[in-house]
Design goal:
Helix content is about 45%, strand content about 10%. The strands form 2 sheets. A two-stranded antiparallel ribbon has the order 1-2. The longest helix has 19 residues. The protein is mainly α.
């Protein structure tokens, strides 16, 4: 007699959070710390953001199965597939699925070629060395602010690459406190609202 495998249908464990907000406050207050603490619950952790249930995967095999091996068995989040979001950003890599997504991915693939990635590395080194020349021995610096500014400069530089340019985004800046924000191009956003696949156009 062969015993049938036992299937556990009970939901995975996870933090309970606030009765109304769920774990949203904890996640927003300390995102990295929250993700690290959730690991204590096991390989699969169930959480709730308001009324939306979300699962965290920590086992590399589960992550590989989700993203590659069995990717066809999963769909993108409902929020990414909503008509409103699709009208806002267009039917691009973020929102599309199936064969249309694969066709767009092939069009965008040159932006992630090894040689092109290496060129981004050269930009990072150049800008990092330039930032070092501005620092003076014995000077007290807010390193978080300096790193944010360096990141901003690199982002602005690489956003000019026609292969990774995003419709609706014309550049980046900071709020004055070191936080990075994207500068939106209203005309580009309106083109996305009309449903034109901006990323496909940029990749051509």
């Amino acid at each position: 007699m062969i015993a049938e495998p036992q299937i556990n249908l009970s939901p995975p464990p996870g933090p309970k959070g606030h009765f109304l907000l769920g774990v949203m406050r904890d996640f927003n207050d300390d995102t990295l710390g929250f993700i690290e603490r959730c690991r204590d619950f096991g390989d699969v952790v169930k959480t709730r953001f308001l009324w939306v249930h979300a699962y965290f995967l920590y086992n590399p095999r589960d992550i590989e199965s989700l993203l590659t091996t069995n990717a066809k068995s999963f769909r993108k989040a409902q929020s990414l597939r909503s008509p409103f979001f699709a009208r806002l950003v267009g039917n691009g890599l973020v929102t599309s699925e199936g064969e249309f997504w694969r066709r767009q991915r092939r069009l965008a693939q040159p932006a992630f070629h090894r040689q092109r990635i290496s060129s981004y590395g050269a930009v990072m080194v150049e800008y990092a060395q330039r930032a070092l020349t501005k620092w003076r021995e014995g000077e007290t610096l807010d390193i978080s602010r300096e790193m944010n500014r360096l990141t901003l400069e690199i982002v602005v530089k690489t956003l000019r690459d026609p292969l990774i340019r995003v419709a609706g985004v014309s550049g980046a800046t900071e709020l004055g406190d070191g936080r990075l924000v994207l500068i939106l191009d209203v005309a580009g956003l309106l083109r996305g609202v009309r449903g034109r696949p901006a990323l496909v156009r940029a990749a051509r």
